[in-house]
Specification:
With about 270 residues, the chain is an alpha/beta fold. It contains nine helices and nine strands. The chain has a seven-stranded mixed β-sheet with strand order 1-9-6-2-5-3-4, with helices on both faces. α1 packs across α5 and α2 crosses α5.
């Protein structure tokens, strides 16, 4: 297969206008989606889990990224055939604040875990709350316990949960070590782990605010069954998920015409 040529950074008026347009259409989508999402959440306030409101929030993420002339997103791989009726603990590597926009292109329902600071933001925080996502305050044992209780409830109700097991974004783009929590949850509940590999989003947003022209891909990998797995096998499940994601990320980065993230970081170093 012929490798696509990497998208080279451009300077000048056109990229600036594309960036301004992207910010403008994002603001417009927020204005449209905020009351819409509030109405959806109110209409489904009696639901056991926020499946419908979460679905509408992901539609916003997909719409925003589809309208941007800077971002070219695609998905690869097939989700499990029973993804609509069976819950999974979904895990992915985390490299950019653009990751959720890319993951919004996946067409199944999930309840996401996000850092609590996002839920405190004006307007954007309301969207997260209306969507029914689960806040997590890092370093707080009480918050961690509440988060896992919410995840257990979602899984019991048949809704998948989405976590970034690295805990923080990888600034180098390489896959960091995974924390145990997501895999302990999967083993405890006897649900399968569904790994996702993300590549390319680190160039979508630069220096925290500047939007970059980038091609990004998320690949759905083979699920890892945990039914019948004991607590002593959490590390095996964790490492298997990480190994699969890391292998796929390296391949995807090569497809995007880039060197391994660690090599690029070393050169910048």
């Amino acid at each position: 297969m012929t490798k696509p040529a990497p998208i080279a950074p451009r300077a000048g008026l056109v990229p600036m206008l594309e960036e301004l347009f992207s910010y403008g259409e994002f603001a417009a989508c927020v204005v449209v989606w905020l009351p819409l999402l509030g109405i959806v959440r109110f209409a489904h306030r009696g639901d056991d889990v926020p499946r419908v409101s979460g679905r509408w929030f992901r539609r916003m993420g997909k719409t925003v990224s589809a309208l941007s002339p800077l971002w070219d997103f695609s998905t690869e791989g097939s989700p499990p055939a029973d993804i609509a009726t069976r819950p999974y603990v979904v895990v992915a590597n985390h490299v950019s604040i653009a990751d959720p926009f890319l993951l919004s292109w996946l067409d199944w329902d999930m309840q996401w875990i996000g850092k609590e600071e996002l839920f405190r933001l004006p307007i954007l925080g309301w969207l997260f709350r209306f969507a029914g996502d689960i806040p997590l305050r890092r370093g707080s044992g009480e918050s961690v316990r509440a988060m896992f209780d919410a995840c257990r409830h979602a899984l019991d109700c048949g809704l998948s949960v989405m976590l970034f097991p690295e805990g923080h974004r990888s600034h180098s783009g390489s896959v960091k070590m995974f924390k145990d929590g997501a895999f302990e949850l999967a083993v405890e509940k006897g649900v399968a782990v569904l790994p996702l590999a993300i590549a390319g989003t680190d160039r979508c947003v630069r220096n925290g605010v500047r939007l970059g022209r980038a091609r990004a891909i998320v690949r759905v990998l083979e699920a890892i069954e945990t039914n019948g797995t004991g607590p002593d096998e959490v590390a095996r499940v964790r490492d298997l998920a990480r190994d699969r994601i890391e292998e796929a990320v390296v391949e995807l980065e090569e497809r995007l015409g880039r060197r391994a993230p660690a090599e690029e970081a070393e050169e910048r170093g």
